[in-house]
Structures
1.
Amino acid sequence: MNQTHPTRETDLSFDESDAAQAESGSPFTPHDAEDVTEMLAAIGADDVEELFDVPEPVRYDGSFGIEGRSERAVRRRLDRTLDANADVVEFLGRGHYSHYVPSVVDSLSLRSEFITSYTQYQPEVSQGFLQVLFEFQSLVTELTGMDVANCSMYDAATALGEAATLADRVRAADGSTILVPDYLRAERRAVLENYADGPGLEIREFPTANGMVDPDALESALGEDVLLVYVENPTTDGVIEEHLDEIGSILEDRETLFCLGSDLLALSLLQNPADVGADVVVGNAGVLGLPNVYGMGIGLFACREEFLRQVPGRLVGASEDADGDRTYTLTLQTREQHIRRERATSNICSNQAWVALRTAIHAAYLGPEGLTALADRCTRLPARLAAELDAIPGVSAPANDAYHFREFTAEIDGDAEAVVSELADRGFAVHRRGDDAIQVCVTETNEEHAAELLETVREVMA
Amino acid sequence: MQRHRQAKWDETESDGHEPLLAEKDLTRHEPSDTYLPDDLTRDGVELPSISEPELVRHYTRLSQMNYGIDSGPYPLGSCTMKYNPKFTEDIAGQPAAAVHPDRDPELAQGTLQVYHELQDYLSRIGGMSAVTLQPPAGAAGELTGILVAKAYHEHNDEGDQREEILVPASAHGTNFASAAMAGYDIVELPADDDGRVDLDALSEAVGDSTAALMLTNPNTLGLFERDIEEIATIVHDAGGLLYYDGANLNALLGRARPGDMGFDVMHFNVHKTFATPHGGGGPGAGPIGVREGLEKFLPSPQVRVDGDEYTLVEPAESIGKVHGSMGNWLVLLKTHAYISRLGDEGLVDTSAKAVLNANYLAERIDLEVPFGPFHHEFVASAGETDAADFAKAMLDNGVHPPTTKWPEIVDEALMTEPTEAESKRSLERLAAAFNAVSEADDDAIAAAPRMTAAKRIDQTTAARDPKLSWQQLSD
C-alpha cells in the first residue's frame, strides 16, 4: 500500500457504550451559561437552586440511576428491545383490528401544528383542529345515525363505562342494573365494573344463543330495574347480530337505554343503529387510523339528541366570529370537569383527539364506496377462511351458525392451548377460546398469509 | 415584539373558512351485491368522496390554521406545553411497535420489556414502590388512584365509613370529578392567606370519614406546600391516604419525590412532564404509582420480570381494569424514549430550567403576581382587564396565551407555565406580548384578535343553539 498518510498515535477509542455522545443536562433546554447568569441577575438570585422552596427533609438529590443517552443510542436500544416481539403473523382480533393505514394518515397527522397543539381553549387560533374534530363528529353522526357524537373517549371499554353512567343520569328506572351479554369480553366488563362502582350500578349478564341475542332470554332478563342493555354488532366473537330490530322493539317503551357497541368500519355496512332504535352507540373508532398498537384506540360515543346535555367529553360546535364567518369552538363546556367539577358528566379531560384526526383522514381516504367495499370484504374473508378451516379434519368452523365480520370461532378436536402454542411456534398467532376452540381474525392485512395458515393448521391437527 | 398573521383559507361560497369535506363533495353510496342479506345491511352512507390530492390539501390547510408548540410559546398553566422531541415519533412508528394486545406474553417480550422498564423509571422518579401504566390520561389516573384508595379502605373494613375526599379549592377540576366518579363526597379545603393548604382547616376537616386528600405540589399557584410533612401526618393519623396529582411534577424532577413527601398514591401526566405530544387534546397517559403495601390493589395486569422473561400478573386484590387493554401504548413508548434520552442529568436540568424560566418571565412582565415563591408556573393578575379578553389580545403577538380565570384565588388569573424549552429570547418576546396587552386600551383589547384565522368567536350562540355536525348545519 502506498501510504501517504502515516498512522499517528491517537487517544481515540471506539465508544460502544449506550451513553456515547449523551449531553450533560437536557438537550431540550436552550440556555447557555451566559443566559442563565443574566436571567438569575434579573431575578435577583445567585443560583437556580435558590429558586426551589423545598424544605430540606423532603429534598432529593436527583440520582435516579437512569443513564442519559444520545438520540441515536436511544433509538438503537429501543429498536433492539422491540425486535424481541416475535415475528409472527397475527390472526388476532376480538375488538382490536388491523386494517391497512394509508401513508397520508401519518403524513398529515404528524404535521406539527396538529400534533403539538392541545385542547382548543383558544378557538380563534385553533380553527384547524376544531374543524377536524367537527368533521370527525359528523362522520360518527352519519355512520351511527345518532344526533350527537362527541370528539372521543379513551377506548371502547371506557366508552361503555361512560354509557352506563349516562344511563344512570338520564333514566329513572327503579333500580340500577346494567344488562350485558354473556359474550362481553372480560376486559370490557372489568372496566365497566369500575365505572359502575361509584354510582353503585349493578352489572348483570343475560344469556345469548348461537353467539347472538336470544330475544326471549333478553326479555325475561329485563326488569323494571334495568337502566341499560348493551349489545354488540359485530360481537367480539365476530358474529353479526340478527335480532337488532326485535331488541329495539323490546326496549322501545321502557325506561331502558339500548346501547349498541360497534366500530366505524362495521357501521359502514351493517344495520344503522338509529334504524333499530339504539339510544347510544359506543365502540372502537380506531379500527380506522391506527394499526394494532397494543390496544391503544379511540372510544366512539354517540347518542340521541335528548341526552345532549349529559354527554361526557368534549363537543365541538359551529358558531360565528366577529366578522360573521362560520367558525368552530368547543361548546357546552358547562358539562365538563373544569367548569362543573364534581357535578361534571365525566372526569375526562385529555382524550384521544389525535387519533380522531387519524380516523377522520382514513375514513375520508376510503370515502363512502371504499368504506363499504372494505366492510363487505370483512364479511367475505371470514366466511371463506372458515369454510376452508372446516374442511380440515378435527376443525369445525365457524362455531356459530351466523354471518361474521372479520373473525369467527372454530371448534377443534384436541387441546386448544397446545394447538395455539404450536401455531405460535410456527409463526401464527390466533386466539385460544377455552379448552376446545380458537378464534381467527382475517382482514386485508393478513389475508395473503391465509393459505399458509391453513396449511399449518392442517399439519398441526394431523 | 413580534407579530403573527395566521394563515386563513376561505372560500366565499362556504360562508367561512376552508370548506368542510362535505361541502366539497357529499356522495351517497348504497351497497349492492353485498355478501350479507339486505336485512342485515344499511341502506347506504352519505359521506365525502374526494381524491387523495384534495384530501392532502384539505388537511394541510387546516394544519396551517392551527397553533402548536412548534409554532411558538404555549404557556398554558398546568398543561406543561414543552417541546416534543421528534425522534420519539420515529420510534413509535416502527413496525415492531405495532403488535396486537392479545398476543401471548411470550410473543410480545419487547413491548413488555418497555413496559417493565418504564414502570421502573417512574417508580424511581416518583419515589414509589410500584407503578401501573394502564390509565390512558391524567384524569383516568386520578380515578384509578382513588379506586386504589377505596380498595385499601375496604380491605381494612373501613370502606363504608370513609366516604369523603378532601380537595383544596385551587385543585384541578378533574380532582373533584374523579373523586365523585368513584362515589365519594367532596370536601373542599380553603387556602390560607399564603395560597397554601390551611392546616387548621385541614385538621378540622379530616376524621374517620376521610378516605384521602388529593394534593398538587407545587400547587396551581406554583407554590410548594412547605408543610407537606405535617399535612401527611395529619391525614395519615386520621387514617386517610395522601394522593399526589402529578400535573405539576415538571417543577420537581429530581428535586423532591412524592414518595419521600409522604404521598401514598400518585399519578404522572406523561404528556406534560415527559414531553409526549398533546395531539390537539390527547392521547396522553396517566400512570399511577403507589407506596409499599398498596401494590396488591393495582389494576390488572402488572408487568413483572421472572429471570429474563416478562410476564403479566394480576395483583392479589386488584381493582380490575381502567382501560380495555394496557393503556396508550404509543404514548408510553415515547415516554420511555424521552426519559432514557435525558437520564438523571437531563431530568434535573429540566426542573432547573423550568423554574428559572417561570421566574424570569414573571420578572419581565408588568403585571402583579400576588403569590410566591413560585416554581414552574405563576399566576399573574390581569387587573382591571377581563383575563379572557387579555388572552385574546395576546394571540396577535404570535404567542398562545396562558390559562385564564383560574385558579380563582387570583383575580382575573393568568396562569402561566413557560416550560424549560423556551429560550431567554423567546421568554422576552412572550413578556413583550404580556406587556403590550397590559398597556393596550379597552377598545383595542375588545377588537382582538385580528391576526388569527378566526376573529372573536361567539360562544353563547354556539351553546344556545348547538350545531355539532355538518348534518346539523343544514337543519
2.
Amino acid sequence: MIMKFAGPALAVALSIGAMASVAMAAGAPADLVKERQDEMKTNSDTMKALLGILKGDKPYDAATVKGMSDGIAASFDKMWKDGVWDTSTQSITTENKAKPEIWSDAAGFEKARKDAMDALAALGASTDLAGMKAALPKLGAACKGCHETYRQPEN
Amino acid sequence: MPGRGKYVAGAAVAAVVGGALFWLVTTPQPLAAVALPQHTADLANGERLYHAAGCYSCHKPAPDLKLDDATLPAGGAPLKTPVGTFYPPNLTPDGETGIGTMTDIAFVNAVQRGLSPEGEHLIPAFPYASYAHMKVEDVLDIRAYLASLKPVSSPEMAPDMMLEPLVRRGVGLWKLMALHVTPWQADPAHTASWNRGAYLVNGPGHCAECHTPRDVFMVPKTAQAFMGGAHPGGEGKVPSLHNLVESKRYTDQADVSSALAFGEMGGYKHVSSSGMGEVQGNISQLPQTDIDAIAEYLVSLK
C-alpha cells in the first residue's frame, strides 16, 4: 500500500520542488511586488530631492544630481534584473496597482522603461542648473507616461 | 372583451401622456443671444481658463491625424465612458469640421447648458454641469482663445452608444436634477485666493465630476462633495480630496501646490495615474497664484 502511493507522492514532491525552484529564480511574487514598491518609493523620494534642487531649496551641484539620477537608473536595472515584473506577480491582488497592460502590451512597457532610462541619462549628463531644468521635466513625463498607462488609479 | 379594449385605450392614453410629459420636461432650455453680456475678449485669460478647464485632455487629436502640432485640440481621440465611447469634437476654428462658424451664443449654450448648436442635449461626459458655474466672460474668453488657434481639419465622429436618441433626450431629465446654471458665489468669510481656488475647482476645473460620488441617476451627491467617486473609466476609484494634509498624503498647503505644479517630476505619485496626470499637466500651466489658490481651497476641505 505504501509503495503504491510512493510513486505519485514522489512525483508531486518533485513537481512542488520544481515549481519552488522556478519561483526562486524570479523570487516569490509577494516579494517581487514588495521590492518594486520599495524601490519606487525610494525613487520617488529621490525625485522630491531633485525637485528641491530645481526649486532652489537646496544648492545645485552637478555631482549630486548625477548621483541621484544614476541611483534611480541603478534601481531600474536592479528591478529588471530581479524580474519584479514577472507575470507571476499578477497573482498578488492586494496592494498591487500593476495593470494587466504591463503584460498585454509588453512592447509599450519596454518602451516606457527605455524612455525613463534615456531621460535619466540626459539628466545625469546635465552640467548646470539650466540643463537640469530642461532635463527633469522630461524624466517627469517619462514617469507619468508609464504610470498613466500601466498603473491603476490611487484610492 | 370591451374591458380589455378599455385597458388598451387606457395604456395608450398613459403612454401618450407620459411621452408628452417626457417630451415637455426634457425640452432643451438654451440661453438667448440677447442675454450675453457685452465683452471684450481677453486672449491671455482665455488661454489660462482653457488649461484650467482641461479642454485639451478630452479634445486631443486622434492619433491617426498625425498633426504637426499635437497640442491643438483637434478632437477625435476616443473617450471611453460607461455609456459608450465618444470622439470629442474639433475645437480648432476650422470652418468645415471645427468651431470656426459657431456663434458665441452657441458656444456658451454648449459649454454651460450642454446643448448642441442644433439644440439637442449633449451627453454629460462633457462636464458642462461644472462649467455652468463659470463666469460667462471666462467662457467667451476661451471661445476667443480657441478662435486664435490654427485651424485643422478633423471630421466629427458619431459616438458608439446604445439607444442614442432616447438617451440624448433623457439627458433632459438628468439636467433637471444635476444642471444648475448658477455662477459660483464667492464666500466673504474666506480670502480672495481661497475664493479663486474654489472657483477654479468647482467651475472650470470640474474636479467634482470625478471626485464627488454620484447616485444611481448619475447625479452628483453634493452633500458628499469631493469625498471620492467611481473612476469614469469604469474601473477603480477616484480618491477623496478631504483632509489631504491630515491624512498625511501631503505635508502642507505648499506641498499640495508643489504636487499640482510638478507632479511626477517631483516624485508626487498621487497625481499621475489613470487620468490625473493629464489633469496635473493642465493645472501646471496655470500661473503660480492660481495653483496656490487651488491648493489653499483643497486643504480647507475637511
